[in-house]
Amino acid sequence: MTAPGSAFVRRAVRMTVIVPPVAWLLTDVLHLPGAAIPASFAMFALTVFAHFGGPRGPRLAASALTAAMGLVVITVACVAGISAWVAVPASLVAVFAIGYVGVLRGYFAPASAALLVPWIFGATSGTPLAGIPEVMLGWTTGAIAALLAGTLVWPERENDDLRPLFAQCLNDAAQMVTARWVAGHYDQAAMDRLDASIAALDQAFLGRADQPGAATSQDRGFLTALDSLRRLRTALWSDQPVPVGSRPVDPPPCDKDLARTTAAGLAGSAAWLTGAGPVVDPRILDGARTQHRQELFEWAGSIPSGEADGAYAQLAATFDLTTVSLTAEALVAGLDPTTEPAELSMLGRPRGDSARRRLAGQWALTSPWFRKALRTAVAIAVTVLIVKLSDVGFGLWVSLGAMAALKADSSGTRRSSGQIILGTIGGFMVGATLIALLGPWTTGYWLVVPVAVFLAAYSPGRTTLVVSQAAFTVFILMMVGISEPGRFAAAEMRVVNVTLGVTVSLLVSLAMWPRGAAAMVRSTIRTAADTASGFAVTAFANLTGEPDPAPAVAADQAQRDVEIARETLDLAVSQRGPGLPDVADWMLVLNTASQFALSGRIVTDLSSLHPLPADCAQTRRELVATSEQSHGDVVTAVTALIARPPGEGAGNVREAPWLAINRVLARRRPPAVAPLDAAAQADTAALIRRHADPDPAECGRGATAIAYSAGWAAQGAQLAQRLSALVRASTTQPAK
Q: Is 732 helix (H, G, I), strand (E, B) or coil?
């Protein structure tokens, strides 16, 4: 089945198959009523809350590990729950840790959501020490049933919707490379197709709880490849002719060879993603770039003195191809991270323990993951305290209600709280009606349970929160009705407890970082854009020899701010509320910040790998001046985006005005770069004319260093120009 919603039907069918027989086994056969509820929660946690995608083997392993961790969590929580003064601080620490580990993404995010359930049950159930083995048996039984059902009952297909979308992007990029540097023309239609393909991939990727993260080399590689794809789009988009006073020299013949190898690597990786070809070895691209670089040095150093005035323009044109090839190499290596050419560190591949770096990188009050984990921990700890002090019946519903309602900001929490209360009341009315009709007839409850299970498992994520909350309420009331037929106490307590939990969530969200998701997105992305473009200034200062620029500190801060901004945007999108109508604009600003962070790292490396020649004082001054102006333009543009009236912006990624802006600015050299071009052209020509070394490669190395340093500065100016154009366009065009 491939129709929309088939995954939800599969999930609901599996739950319908396993929940009633497991409940019957534990209650009527083994007479262990204390095991039935933890068993049900284990099945819901592993089947509904923790939806693991990917191949069957890793999916089963992740489910089994989550089940085992759930057994540990529920046991520790039950022990801690014996004393209120232990349960509350333990909940604060445990819930924070469980929530924060979701920052690793991949399988960790859905597992984190699932593991909150056993903690809440154990901390609020009031299970005595002698009853803990029964709870452990219930969890284990439910977990085994869920694992068997996931493997045997209509198992998920090994289908990854990101891979074909990614493959389409690579094929479109390969066509653009071929058009520009093999056929020799800028193909706007191919660029439009690439823009549309990347927009489709971004829409599928952004806001997914199970998106690849930093816990495994495969996930880290995918993130590297995705970042590289966005940077590849920027490099392919930019085609800025450099004004020269004389005819530029003919392009080096080695350009076409590098372009063909790059296009073949991209197309080959696309084939591998769809299972139509072998994995591409990134060392092939690395070797092609090395050969191209050496040939380029020799070609540039052999330009006659009479043609020296046109050398810079052609070297500047070659910059785009070199950037495309370097980015493509990082992309290919990310898809298969078993090999890693040394120079890929220039493109920001994480160094050291990436999981540890990611955890440390989000350890800040400005991090959305830190805030979300701490806010959830406080809310759950407060509900545990309320349950323990009031001795309210079915106390876990208070904590579950708080967990379900709490969102990234107060506005999101208000929306979800209203829907949860409305759904709970609706479920109460349906459940109370069924209880009145069935009365003490236990068999009737058993007949209704399969239908209730199906709806409760099908609706989360597929229908509205109102419907899913109503379905889950009916399921809970029918399960309680099996052991307490004809009684309305549970139905009444369900409404009271959920309302109490929702109230706690509302109060916590108002007390802890209540700003809306849109405000948090804009604030963190503005900081990232400021820091990243400022880091580029520091990198150019370091390249040109200015004293004490401290690029390493600026690099770390820029990377941290970009990652925090990216996570903030992603979590805001995952709420799927109405508070971020201009998401496409802020995605563009975030990608711009990421590109500035990349250029800063590469320019920092250029100072040691390809330093500027000694006699190019004009170029050195203009590199710093151009980067400073780009930084100022970026800050001004982002500030204007924040200040514009609510409701203005691009809205849908596919309809964003920046696509039209791209077409206009792709081949337009920013006026701010003119002084740099003039200085670089003069210094390059002077270098070629005066060079007397018998080795032309040394002269070519210096000329290429000037052109490529100017290329990164010009790219920053072009990105700033694009943001400024976006401000002008978005203040006159309403959201779609």
A: coil
